[in-house]
Design brief:
The complex is a heterodimer of chains A (75) and B (131). Chain A is an alpha+beta fold and 75 residues long. Chain A has a single domain, classed as 2-Layer Sandwich (Translation Initiation Factor IF3). In chain B, strands 4-3-2-1-5 form a 5-stranded parallel beta sheet, sandwiched between helices. Classes of the chains: A alpha+beta (75), B alpha/beta (131). Chains A and B meet through helix 1 and helix 2 of A and helix 1 of B.
């Protein structure tokens, strides 16, 4: 997967990860992929819900050693 | 789906602040237009000095540690972020008059309005939330 940008939201709690994701998405182009690292368990439902609102696609989500990874393709 | 969220902040404690500003910030980060109408004790949440000393509900002071542990942003930080994301703050004129407050008592960038101003905005909003 070709990642255009990565943001680290580990250690942050709601609503900060979403705010960081929004700001980062504003800086990439349509079709590009944003990688997000988070530890707030709330992001497991919040980031997909946020992506749905904006019409973005979650290409992949995985968990490695308690860090949640999201790959969001901008609409 | 409405692209507009309307919030009434009518209480001025620390928990109230989090309820109001978390939802407002999350909505604004989801490309919604957001307006908060601050009335009565809610004015405390945008008061220059008051917002730095919001109180926990009586008997709930032990949650202070939990806030620290969860790395929750402070209320002034959330307020700044909300404004940066375009959330509009309206202070209730009537309450300000009752409490003897002027626009200078509040943080920069707020507007002052009455109930009708808010209702006009909220008529096309979904959801409208009250805290």
């Amino acid at each position: 997967m070709n990642v255009s940008k990565t943001i680290d939201a580990t250690g942050l709690s709601c609503p900060m990860p979403i705010v960081k994701v929004k700001k980062a998405m504003d800086t990439i182009n349509s079709g590009e992929v944003l990688e997000v690292l988070a530890t707030d368990q709330g992001t497991l439902s919040d980031i997909p819900a946020w992506a749905k609102t904006g019409g973005h696609t979650i290409l992949e989500q995985k968990t490695i050693e308690e860090v949640l990874y999201f790959y969001i393709q901008k609409s | 789906m409405s692209e507009r969220v309307a919030i009434i902040a009518a209480n001025g404690g620390l928990f109230d602040g989090y309820k109001v500003f978390n939802i407002a910030t999350a909505a604004a980060a989801s490309e919604k237009e957001v307006q908060i109408f601050f009335t009565f004790e809610g004015l405390n949440l945008i008061h220059k000095q008051g917002m730095h000393h919001l109180e926990m509900p009586e008997g709930k002071e032990h949650f202070a540690e939990g806030f620290k542990k969860a790395n929750v942003p402070s209320i002034p930080e959330l307020v700044e972020m909300a404004q940066e994301l375009g959330v509009k703050f309206i202070a209730c004129q009537m309450t300000m008059d009752v409490m003897g407050l002027s626009k200078d008592d509040f943080i920069e960038g707020i507007e002052v309005g009455g109930a009708v101003t808010f209702l006009e905005y909220a008529k096309d909003a979904s959801p409208t939330l009250t805290f």
